[in-house]
Design goal:
By secondary structure, the chain is of the alpha/beta class. The chain folds into two domains: 157 residues, Alpha/beta knot; 52 residues, Trp Operon Repressor, Chain A (Orthogonal Bundle), CATH 1.10.1270.20. Helix content is 29%, strand content 19%. It has six helices and nine strands, in the order βαβββαβαβαβαββα. The strands form three sheets. A five-stranded parallel sheet has the order 2-1-6-5-7. It has a two-stranded antiparallel ribbon with strand order 3-4. It has a two-stranded antiparallel sheet with strand order 8-9. α3 links the parallel β5 and β6. It is elongated.
Length: 235
């Protein structure tokens, strides 16, 4: 998988070279390219924003530097792969685990990290011919820019790419996993020691009875889903 991320704060994305994604990059499973949008600004001040047409507060990111940067990224990549352009925005479609599953099968992802009031709407409109353009939101709140959302989506997607997780059986049992059995949320998990500060690991987990353990975990999943996310529980 190839990932290109465009931002006016490229250093923000340095953490992608740590942990699982960093290992995937080192192993050659993932290629990561981070680009500074200001490299394609045309004035001495490296301006990438301007006032809002129609009036209103804030500034909007100009289409010219975005167009020049996206053209350069497309030209640098494989000509036979149609990339997916992801534009993080609170006004986009919701990013979910099923979306992460789908994107994990992609060969090329491009993230356009907006700032201010967002990116001029003509950018998404223009590139729909050459890319699968998706405007996506990671939640019902507003961030200062798209970089944090890009980090979240990269981690959610890359961990699903075959060979990235140390144990491939981990992902199917995650909360919200598409083929997860039981309720949507995974229940609490435990490790050694069996007794800690007066609190004991549930005895069934020490019993060795796999059927009872599976039943306990499903019950714990249902209980947690009902308590934390009642909106996910069927009537």
């Amino acid at each position: 998988m190839r990932i290109d991320i465009i931002s006016i704060f490229p250093d923000y994305l340095a953490s992608l070279r740590l942990s699982l994604i960093g290992k995937a990059i080192d192993a050659g499973t993932v290629e990561l390219f981070v680009h500074d949008l200001r490299d394609h600004a045309v004035d001495i001040h490296r301006t990438v924003d301007d006032t809002v047409f129609g009036g209103g507060p804030g500034m909007v990111m100009k289409p010219e530097p975005w167009g020049a940067m996206l053209d350069a990224v497309l030209e640098s990549g494989p000509f036979d792969i149609r990339p997916t352009l992801l534009i993080p925005t609170p006004s986009g479609r919701t990013f979910t685990q099923s979306v992460a599953d789908e994107l994990a099968t992609s060969e090329w992802l491009i993230f356009a990290c907006g700032r201010y009031e967002g990116i001029d709407g003509r950018v998404a409109q223009f590139y729909r011919e050459s890319m699968d353009v998706r405007e996506v939101s990671i939640g019902d709140y507003v961030l200062a820019g798209g970089e944090a959302a890009a980090l979240v989506m990269c981690e959610a997607v890359v961990r699903l790419v075959p060979g990235v997780l140390g144990n491939a059986s981990s992902a199917p049992d995650d909360s919200f996993a598409t083929d997860r059995s039981g309720s949507a949320l995974e229940g609490p998990v435990y490790t050694k020691p069996a007794s800690w500060r007066g609190l004991e690991v549930p005895a069934v987990l020490l019993s060795g009875h796999h059927g009872e353990i599976a039943k306990f975990r499903e019950q714990s999943s249902v209980q947690r889903t009902s308590e934390y996310r009642p909106d996910l529980v069927d009537d």
